[in-house]
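To assess whether the prediction recovers the assembly geometry, we first specified each molecular entity separately, as shown.
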Amino acid sequence: MTQFTENNGALFVDNLSVAELAKAYGTPLYIYSQTAITQAFNEFKNALGDFPSLICYAVKANSNLSILKVLADLGSGFDIVSLGELERVLKAGGDPAKIVFSGVGKSVQEMKRALEVGVACFNVESEAELERLSDVAVGEGKTAKISLRVNPDVDAKTHPYISTGLKENKFGIEFNRAIDVYLKAKALPGIEIVGIDCHIGSQLTQATPFLDATDRILVLVEQLKNHGIVLKHIDLGGGLGVTYKDETPPAVADYLSPILAKLKDLKVSLMLEPGRAIVANAGILVTKVEYLKPTTEKNFAIVDAAMNDNIRPSLYQAWQEIRPVQSSNATPDIWDIVGPVCETGDFLAKGRTLAIAAGDYLAMFGAGAYCFSMSSNYNSRPRACELLVDGDTSRVIRQRESFDDLIRGELVGNA
Ligand SMILES: *Cc1c(COP(=O)(O)O)cnc(C)c1O
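The predicted structure of the complete assembly is given in tokenized form:
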């Protein structure tokens, strides 16, 4: 169920008017619904039922401390890919024993800190990383719990930039090398093997690639047993898609039930690393129309949000719905929604039929995942304010950046 509803042509988040929030806090403005996040998390939890499992929310989708806190309070674990994400989870009250550490480039410093706080598992992505991790663990007098991230070589049928489980991708250990690398891991002094992991891509809209990947992983689980390596968990990564436009991803329960059926006799627990499916449709980006600029070729609506606030349209050709926050009597026309940044690639949407005028607020939907977390200060634009709405109340969970924030750490010289 959506928490974004229309009442007499006005958009609401939970019980609050988006136009009122935009007036009070300014634009560009990210607004998230705590109820929507909770509902999405509980969909996973309910689908898993009493199957031994851990949901590790992928922090990179949206790493705001308050959102991490909401998820930690719901009992979520976390999938992290950097030291910064680790510290965020700890600061938000996340349990280190529910953290899995993914990523192809873990540094010595990151490994040390993760060992110190006691993360549940390192998802190791290469033999070189495995050797380094063993050395670091021995040096710290610790043992690193690991799973190997195996590349199952299945086609996730998603955008090439977010497909990760093909042979030619940089992620994971080659399927045909996996057993040898496990045998090597078994012999290393600083390593304890606890699981196996894969993550084949993001925004998957079909169940089949997940099932194919599961089958490939289960082949390895059997072979490992024959080598005396018994795994405690299988981590099938994240990747479940959401509806931005007309995509029809499987419901969480429909994607998970055939997977659970495959695992039920194996005495392993299941870990998942959903990001987008938890937060994407829990957020909107609100922006104001600064100018309408009709030209002979095209009509441009120049808004105060830009590619630095949401890079998905320019980076992935992503389509996100845009609607006026308050419907108006303006004549509908076809608009490209573009920002103030000095790049032709700076657009939020192209060719949208909208009835808009200068000064109107627009809402960009599906903005809870991979939007704010990928934002930047390009063109010296301060990053937006973030709000979390819960029923009748809203609170600022990130202040709009100031000029001082923009230049923090920079030196003019001769100081
Ligand atoms: C990005 C990522 C995820 C989350 O993917 P979603 O598509 O947002 O669910 C999970 N695991 C790993 C290793 C990732 O890199």
